[in-house]
Structures are given as C-alpha cells and as structure tokens.
Design brief:
The complex is a heterodimer of chains A (318) and B (200). Chain A is of the alpha+beta class. Helices cover 37% and strands 26% of the residues of chain A. In chain A, strand 2 and strand 3 (32-41) form a beta hairpin. In chain A, helix 8 (242-250) packs across helix 9 (262-269). The longest helix of chain A is centred in the first third of the chain and has 22 residues, at 81-102. In chain A, 51% of the residues are buried. Chain B has helices at 14-25, 38-50, 75-80, 106-122, 147-155, 164-169, 184-193, and strands spanning 2-6, 29-35, 54-60, 63-70, 93-96, 129-132, 159-163, 180-182, 197-199. Chain B has a five-stranded parallel beta sheet. In chain B, strand 3 and strand 4 (63-70) form a beta hairpin. The longest helix of chain B has 17 residues, at 106-122. Classes of the chains: A alpha+beta (318), B alpha/beta (200).
Chain lengths: 318, 200
C-alpha cells in the first residue's frame, strides 16, 4: 500500500518503505541510527497475559531483525472496557511489560481507545550502528539461510479455535512469546548479509521479499524447515487459516518439487505471529553461526536453504 | 447413510469441525458439506483426504458442495443419492496422447484441442480424470493454451494427471502448472476402473 505514496527523500533515511523491510532506519550521526517500528493485532490466544507477551515479542522482533537493540516502547491499545473489564487489560499490559523488560527496553507511554474488539501492540524505537543495519535486501549468491524458530503458528492458532491439538497449541504460544533477542545477539557476532523476521506473509512470503530485494534466486529444502509439534497434522486436517491461501495466491510464482506434501506447502505459506529470524550468511560461516545459535539455547535453529544465484526472485522448494 | 452439513456463513475453522463431527458420527456413508468460500472448501477437502475418504466438489453460484464418501462405497448409496451435484467422479476418463488434436494440420489441431478442453469444461457430467502422455504433457505446463481450462477442471475435482516419464523426457518437470504427476500403473488402473475411457 505504501508504495502508492510519495517516497520521502532524506539522505539520512537508510531504510524506508521501498523494500518491504521490517522497520524504518534513520541515521542520527556517524555512530547512531534510529530504528522505528509498530505492530498490533487482535488476540490470538485466550490467555490475556500470554497475548500481551506475544504481541510485545512480535513488535520487538522487527528491531532485532534490523540488527538493532530496542530502547523505548509505546503501548497501543484498543479495548472494550465495559465488556471485558480492566482486569483483562491489566493482564495484557503486564504480559507486554514483562516481555519489554526481558528485552532490556522500557515502556515510556502509550494510548488506549475504546473499541469493540481488543487489540494490542507496541511502537518500538531502537538503536543500531548505521554501518551495521541489516536489511532483507543484501542476500548474496552462495549464502545459506538459517531460520531460528519453527513455523506453524497460524495453523495452530486455527487448531486452538477448534479445540484441537493442545500440545501443538501450547508449543506455539511459547514459541510466539519467545524473544528474538538471543538470536539477534548471536547474529551480531557474525557477518550476516541479510535478515528479516517471519510474520504475516509466511515463511515463503518473507523469503520471496528477501530474494526480490536482493535480486537473487533461493532454494529451500522442505524437510529441513523446523515445524511446531502437530502443525503438519493440523494442516493436513484442514485447519489452515485463510491468510495461508492468500499468501499462496500472491506467491503463485513459487515452484515446488512434486514430492513436497501439501501440508508442508500450507505451513510454508502459513502467516506467522512473532516468527523467527531468517538470516542469510556466507556458506563458510553458516556452520559456525548455527553452532552458536544452538549453543545460545535456540534449539530449533536450522539451515533451511540457500541463495543459488543472481536472479529475479525465483523460489524453488524441494 | 447420508448427511448434509450446511456450513455456509461459518468462519474458519467451523466448517472443518462440523464436517469432522458428522464424519465421526457414521461408520460409512456420504456427507455433503456446503460452504461459501474457497478457504473452507480447501480445508474441508483436506479433512476428507486426511480421513481417507473419497471427495468430489461441485460449485453452484459460488457455493461449494463437497461430497465426502466414507468407508466402502456401496453403489446403491451413490445411485440413491439423487443430489443434482452428483456429476463429478462418475464420468469418463480421457487419455490425451498428443499436444494437438487429430492428425493433419498442427495449427488446426491446436485450435481443436483448445475447443475440446473448453467443451469438456462446459459439459456435464464432468470426466473423472484427464491423463496426459507423450507430447500431451505440454498441455499441463506453464504457458499452455489450455492451462486455465485444466485449472478450472482440477478445481472442480477432476483429476488432472501428467505422465512423469514424459515430463522427464521433454525436460518439463519443473514447469508443470496444473494437476499431479502419475505413472503407467495408475494410468492403466484408472482406465480399467473407468466406466468409459476415451483416447484422444
């Protein structure tokens, strides 16, 4: 949508709206750049405290994906105070606050409006060095791709509404509430060429943006992609959110080997909430980076594919 | 046993839940779930496939009738089923052996093939399957002049199958744009099981 608007021109604007990146980056001086992002959404889990944590982890993630550190946060709240009462809102805000504290950032304010349906999210401001900004648009041919969280949160949120697959639903909640902080800290110690976080466009949507932004082609090995428990079973049973089909229709240029089962294709198109970081790193450094991620406790991290060559953004999943 | 599940107007994942309950309530029989959006259609079809049931889909005025057959399919059930949407899955099987229709002018043959697929798309009952061998696999790849017709047929539940050996031979496996890949065993079985098999 933003591409239809006039593009701002300012030499200090390092990352704007052109490459569908996670956040905007503005250079303040030679050593400091400002990262700004905002995201909010309707509840995806029943527990208000968990929802607050997830919404905060999701918003903070955009700063991590740009290679930055979150500094200050503003809450954005829409809430039906008469219908749900202040206790529920308090739980949501507590969840958010605890997650922000875990990120080492502080809440400095916020705004609440009365609305029929609750919504919560954060506007996050972070800092990074202007020379060390990570965008999704600099993947290099020969790079390997590392994903730090399993996919399937959209399918399992659908399963939650069907009261099915409780173990998978629980695992999805914990995964969504997990910060990408450690992954970002490990990433900062390596030479990563490009990074993005996996959210609403699904794994393949964000891979596609990285491929197009970097003018490369990418291949993904289906069986290497980490999945949340029971996600494949839930997808095969038809617990697939409409957003996954929207993503699939938008990404009709993605090609699959015949052997890739439909339930995996659906999971790769599944819109994610607070998904993992996707890092593009030189082949020579990929094993070291993966080992460091595993060492840091990011147990689901995996090499899932590679940047094959300069290209127009062709994606092949085999 | 025959059950209708009207899931029109229900949001995801309610159509799947309602169909699942109906499936669990019978040992064998036919369930027809009616939905009004493509997401629900695909999801209910997935549930049927995951439950090892037969599934066929017809569309009328934007409403999808998903017919799910559980257990052995006694012929009397399907015959007794007077549903007007029972046309899919009981039709003819076409084996297409070349990319154009008939011998003679290639140009004319291409026009005829396009016209043939259009007519198949418009006629009832629909075929059960259309299978493509030899140069006919060029009809199921990206850029094929009949790709849209085939996609619509596939969406309506017609099996569109291309010979894997043939795709390999012409080096087209990566370009397949509609339906699945099959082998000679399935081709022979499908033709043998069909009430009528026609070679083009």
């Amino acid at each position: 949508m933003l591409c239809q608007l006039r593009k701002p021109t300012d030499p200090n604007l390092l990352v704007g709206i052109e490459t569908a990146d996670d956040a905007g980056v503005y250079k303040l001086d030679e050593n400091t750049a400002l990262i700004q992002t905002v995201d909010f959404f309707t509840p995806i889990v029943d527990d208000p405290y968990m929802f607050g944590q997830i919404a905060a982890a999701n918003s903070l993630s955009d700063v991590y994906a740009m290679g930055g550190k979150p500094l200050t946060v503003m809450n954005i709240v829409a809430f039906p105070m008469c219908k749900l009462g202040p206790e529920v809102l308090l739980k949501i805000l507590e969840g958010g606050q605890d997650k922000v504290a875990e990120a080492g950032a502080i809440i400095v304010g916020g705004h609440t409006v009365d609305d029929d349906e609750p919504k919560f999210g954060l506007s996050v401001t972070g800092l990074c060095h202007p020379d060390r900004v990570l965008t999704n648009a600099n993947a290099q041919p020969g790079d390997w791709l590392i994903l730090t969280k399993p996919v399937g949160t959209g399918v399992l949120a659908t399963a939650a509404r069907a009261d099915m697959f409780p173990a998978g639903v629980e695992a999805a909640s914990l995964s969504m509430a997990a910060l990408n902080r450690k992954a970002a800290e490990v990433m900062a110690r390596h030479t990563v060429h490009a990074c993005t976080d996996i959210t609403g466009f699904g794994l393949l949507g964000h891979i596609y943006e990285m491929a197009v932004g970097s003018k490369t082609d990418i291949q993904i090995e289906a069986k290497s992609v980490p999945l949340l428990p029971e996600a494949a079973e839930a997808a095969a049973m038809g617990l697939v959110p409409g957003g996954a089909y929207d993503n699939r229709n938008y990404l009709s240029s993605v090609r699959f080997a015949e052997a890739v089962p439909e339930c995996l294709r659906d999971l790769f198109f599944d819109p994610q909430t607070s998904g993992g970081l996707l890092m593009s790193v030189a082949e020579s450094e990929a094993d070291n980076l993966l080992a460091d991620l595993l060492q840091a406790g990011i147990r689901e991290a995996a090499i899932i594919g590679r940047v094959t060559k300069i290209g127009a953004g062709e994606i092949y999943v085999y | 046993m025959s059950i209708n599940v009207d899931a029109r107007g229900l949001g995801c994942p309610q159509p799947v839940i309602a169909t699942k309950k109906a499936l669990e309530s019978i040992a064998s029989g036919v369930i027809t779930t009616i939905v009004d959006n493509a997401t629900a259609k695909e999801n209910v079809a997935k549930l049927a496939a995951a439950s090892n049931c037969g599934v066929s889909i017809t569309e009328t005025n934007g409403h999808f009738y998903i017919k799910i057959t559980k257990g052995d399919t006694p012929t009397e059930t399907s015959l007794a089923d007077e549903d007007t949407s029972s046309s899919v899955g009981e039709g003819v099987v076409y084996l297409i052996t070349q990319d154009t229709m008939g011998h003679g002018s290639k140009e004319l043959g291409a026009v005829l093939m396009k016209s043939f697929m259009y007519t198949v798309l418009e006629s009832r009952p629909q075929p059960k399957a259309i299978m493509f061998v030899n140069s006919a696999v060029q009809l199921t790849i990206a850029g094929s002049p009949v790709l849209e017709h085939l996609k619509q047929l596939a969406e309506r539940g017609v099996e569109v199958l291309s010979c894997g050996t043939c795709l390999d031979y012409y080096n087209l496996k990566d370009k397949l744009a509609v339906g699945g890949v099959t082998n000679m065993f399935t081709i022979v079985e499908t033709m043998a099981a069909a009430p009528k098999a026609v070679t083009i």
